[in-house]
Amino acid sequence: MPIVARNVQENADGYREVSLEYRRARSAALDARTADQTTDPGVGSDADARKERIACPMLDACRSTGAYGEKALRATDKRHLNPWSRVLGIPAFGIRAVGYLSGPWYRIWSNAVHGRFDAQQLNGGFLRSFKHGINTGVLARGSFSQEELDQLVWSFQPELKGVSITTPWIHGPDSAGYYLTEAMLPAVLAHNETNADPGMFGRRLGLALSTFEMKSLLLGPLAQTVSIGSDAGSQRLKAISVRDLHDFYKQGWLPVQIEERFSAAGFLAIADVQAMPASRNAAGAA
Hints:
By secondary structure, the chain is mainly α. The protein has helices at about 20-35, 45-50, 55-60, 80-90, 90-100, 110-115, 125-130, 145-155, 165-170, 185-195, 205-220, 240-250, 255-265, 280-285; strands spanning about 5, 10, 15-20, 180, 225-230, 235-240, 275. The chain is about 45% helix and about 10% strand.
């Protein structure tokens, strides 16, 4: 079978991303690996098979072997968290604090003393309770939700409403040029608040935590600076493409600049991909 090279392209806005050919090939290869590993004949894609997803998409991507065959974050102790945070470009103290508060309240002291935490406990721990349900909803229930991803994207790109942000759509030409930018943050936060638990108690704190996550992650190191608009009235904004947003949430693929940083640090090996036979490729994309 032919090999599809990892080809990084820069579009007219200055955004760097892998080619559509490579994006299709890596997705199909991941679906094929997952289908081979599962014993459930009804499971045909990685997003369906990985039921135990971590609600934090960055930790989910880096604490899973699914997309890259290895964990970019080998363990959740200080020895591994500090260099990982430094390469990612976020404060190590903040990540450790989030981790230590992630489990049940009675584990906080033990987490801090031992300098490590269980990432799976993020899904129902002490800190998560403070968010009062204010989040994107995409991984909130421990598995990927296509419906919630659609609602998220439609909140900041309303012209796409009615278009499901599925793998086949992402792999086609119509998905080019769509971004989540820093100017769209208010729309995303308004969407996140629609997922809030009933009642008004704690909403202010939950919204503050959601704002911090959006600014420090999706529109932080995962974003790139692009020029959007005509030459005369273009704006330079931090942005992540809808294509990268989809692949990040659904299968755990990281934007190219993070892949390159992690590869240079020895956290990940970024490889070319073996193309799948057409029949298996079509099945995985459905």
